[in-house]
Design goal:
- Helix content is about 20%, strand content about 35%.
- It is of the alpha+beta class.
- The protein has two domains: about 80 residues, no CATH class; about 130 residues, Nucleoside Triphosphate Pyrophosphohydrolase, CATH 3.90.79.
- The longest helix has 19 residues.
- It is globular.
- About 20% of the residues are buried.
């Protein structure tokens, strides 16, 4: 999905409401950033960006905005996509209506409500002593490795998903699964729920449909890693910090 940004000297920034007052009527409130209320609106198909503005792919802004701005971009993507894709009832086809005071659209015929949806996914760093397991997804740039991740199945707990995804993707067993943190991820409308786990047994056997390569890495011998904004990198950096922390008695 494209986003409209102000761009000056190659640096993107978020437009203000005063830049495009004609979009205000259909705008969705997102929250506040630096004391300013923020909104998102669907861009008309025939909109030609004025001088100083341009349409860009949302993914191209990753690492070009700070954490708070990128979080706002992610929220706007999810809400605008929900608004666009739920204009009609999925049961009877009637046009839906926005519900005042709620983040919802409702069918006026059968009263079915439609809310923005997220797809929960786990992401896990598996450790074995002072090494960590990283994999290279088949879709990654050639040298980049990251932590393992996957979507939660219906009826599955987050911890069950962690164990299943690791077993399916690299063939090993794990234990001591612990919650680390979470991060909304706009591409796929996901909520990434981070965990750490420890190696329990088995040899690495990758699922070639998902993982091109997986290996154990030490903090002193690292491949290309994900950008620092991602929860994958937060997991990796936290492990490195723990391993390199001076041990008691040393």
């Amino acid at each position: 999905m494209d986003l409209l940004v102000r761009e000056q000297d190659g640096t993107p920034s978020i437009p203000t409401g005063a830049d495009f007052p004609e979009l205000a009527a259909g705008a969705h409130f997102l929250g506040a950033l630096d004391g300013q209320d923020c909104y998102a609106a669907v861009l008309p198909d025939d909109l030609t960006p004025p001088e100083g503005f341009k349409k860009v792919l949302a993914r191209s802004l990753y690492t070009r905005l700070d954490d708070a701005e990128f979080s706002l971009v992610g929220r706007s993507l999810a809400i605008v996509e929900w608004d666009v894709t739920h204009r009609f009832c999925g049961r009877c086809g009637a046009p839906t209506q926005l519900v005042p005071g709620e983040r919802a659209r409702r069918c006026p015929v059968d009263r079915t409500p439609f809310y923005p949806r997220i797809a929960p996914a786990i992401i896990v760093l598996v450790s074995r002593g002072d090494t960590m397991l990283l994999g290279r997804n088949a879709s990654f740039p050639q040298p980049m490795f990251s932590t393992l991740a996957g979507f939660v199945d219906p009826g599955e707990s987050l911890e069950e998903c962690v164990a299943r995804e690791v077993k399916e993707e690299v063939g090993i067993d794990i234990h001591h699964i612990r919650y680390f943190g979470s991060q909304p991820w706009p591409f796929g409308r996901s909520l990434m729920v981070g965990f750490t786990a420890e190696y329990a047994g088995g040899d690495i056997v990758v699922d070639p449909k998902e993982i091109a390569e997986a290996r154990w890495f030490s903090p002193d011998d690292l491949p290309m890693l994900p950008p620092r904004l991602s929860i994958a990198r937060q997991l990796i950096d936290s492990f490195i910090e723990r391993v390199k922390r001076p041990k008691l008695g040393q």
